[in-house]
Amino acid sequence: MAIINGTSGNDIRVGTLGADTMNGLGGNDTLVGLAGNDVLNGDAVLGPYGNDNLIGGAGNDTLNGRGGNDWLIGGTGNDILNGGTGIDTADYSSRSIHGIGYVGATAAVTVNLNITGSQNTGGSGFDTLSSIENVSGTNFNDTLIGNGASNVLAGLGGHDTLDGRAGNDRLEGGDGNDILTGGDGNDTLNGGNGNDTIFGNSGNDRLTGGAGADSLTSGVGSNVFVYTAVSDSPAGGGRDTIQDFVASFDDIDLRGVDADATQAGNQAFTFIGSNPFSNFFGIYNPGELRFANGVLQGNTDFDGAAEFEIAFANGGSTLTINDLLL
Hints:
By secondary structure, the chain is an all-beta fold.
């Protein structure tokens, strides 16, 4: 058994193949336990003393973040992750920190921040999470569930299910066909790549489908549907569907979309109501946005076909310029 101490500075300490006790002391430290049943302490005392990376590795490890905003990676084994004060993250992915690679879960994980005792994560053993605000998943099909705090849940790869529950949460689907549910609070929901299904539920939410043919349901509240590129909702079968748009309460934010591909920079759309795209001797005016028959269409070049479309399942018959952020 080894006792490995850091300094008051920013340290990187790597343990042994045995059962180690590692103390970061001050600074923003990275502690790597390797094999064995290790105890990793980010700081000497409670308080905002350092934002630490604690990597358990193999074995049944105890990770104590204590002060600061810490990143806790239990690795394989049945681990105890105690974030302490600050905004702390339990990470089940496989990645590298400061050039040190580590292996996270070996299969999909299910992590519920409402459970205070030991929980079967599936792909990463029986873990006990305490004072953890955020969870980062894997490239498998994960289920991540928040609690009453303001959580960040990141699905990464795979077809994930993310549920923020109460609090003002941020849900990041990543790659795959994900299901995101905001729950209570004012949530930010980003589907990422894939054909995602997003539910805002209650609160004033921001819903971004990202790439893929997404289904967006805002729920109650004053909500914003955000688009940042034509590729977020291309015309035809790849377009998004907004299930429950309520005029005068919800908004469509298109300020990040370049409405005119023929010019440099990010050009804004011009809304022309239900009129057809402007045509001058067969040359059409790029940058026009029209709404008819339950579909919002944008033309970004000189032809008469829309490159950008959003479908409204409820028809969106009362959508006006006042519902658009251009």
